[in-house]
Amino acid sequence: MLRSNTQSARLLTRSSVLAVAISLGAPPVSGYQLVRGPDFVWAPELRPVGYWVANAGNHWLTVDQVVTETRAAFDTWQESEHMGLSFSYRGTTDQRPFDFFDGTNTVGFSSRERMSQLGLSEVTLAVTSWLSVIGRDVIAEADILVNPAYNWTDVVDSGFWDLRATLVHEAGHFLGLGHSGVGRVGERGLVEGSSVMWPYTFGRGSSLGRTLTADDVTGAAVLYPGPGAPTGRIHGIVHRASGELVRYAHVVAFEPLRDHTVGAWADGEGNFEIAGLPDGQYLLRVNPIPAHHSDGAYFFPYGRVDRDFSVTVVAQLVLVSGGQATEINIEVLP
After folding, report:
1. Which of 61, 138, 176, 229 is the most buried if burial means most Cβ atoms within 10 Å?
2. 23 exposed, middle or buried (CB, 10 Å; 0-12, 13-18, 19+)?
3. Which of 158, 192, 223 is the last residue of a domain?
4. pLDDT tens figures, 96-147
5. Do 248 and 180 reside in the same domain of the chain?
């Protein structure tokens, strides 16, 4: 993950988020992440949010193909009736991703040399960066950079790297979402129903990341609630039997009648809130970040994440009714 901050006369600050890196197995279940909380959203005066595609292809795709896949990726997010933000494609541009403070939200390929200058690893598939207004902490500009070194494709399940699936993930960051851990595991890794905001790629040849899950849509709707977006919430504290708070635990709500899985993360003081839930009876599960996943993959401070507890399932179903909030404190198993 690359993070940096700078200032200019326009009172903007920059931060970058590593989007997709390498494939790892055995994912846990967790939920959507608001990378800076529910208020880190696109400035109202910039909506609908415009974006441009860099006027540069690579060895595998033409600029027209990149435009088609980029537009499809952004359209995937705004198709949800519960998400109240729309995008506007503005055309191609000679600007390049991560040419900061240019007033252009640019999506596309850069060069290997530019990636090296930015300190990005060669295994990085793509990365998103925001500019935010100092004092308001709202998004004012964002770019998506795609690594040109990979063999990209616009063909479903071709055996190459699916550009649209990667850009759907990046468009989630563009919205202000962080990483989810909602993953469903099959014999060969992640399968259908896994969140597109999972921090690691589904693998070469997979187009699974083209389809949003309930967890993805809920995260977007919490940031930008549209008409009729569910408003139910489950919130509380994750703690041990001793009363000690558990930091950065995964808390997941599963509604079996809907096959609806949505989760969120406890903060550094054990507080959690899963918002955007439709009415129903939910099974709650809490689990730590897997040992082979880094704290940074989920944007948590290194060395602060509690991992020394067991997966815990709450014994009783938790009712969400009338779009209201339900409070429950969860004691994890040692």
Report:
1. 176
2. middle
3. 223
4. 999 888 989 999 998 888 888 888 888 889 999 999 887 888 999 999 999 9
5. no
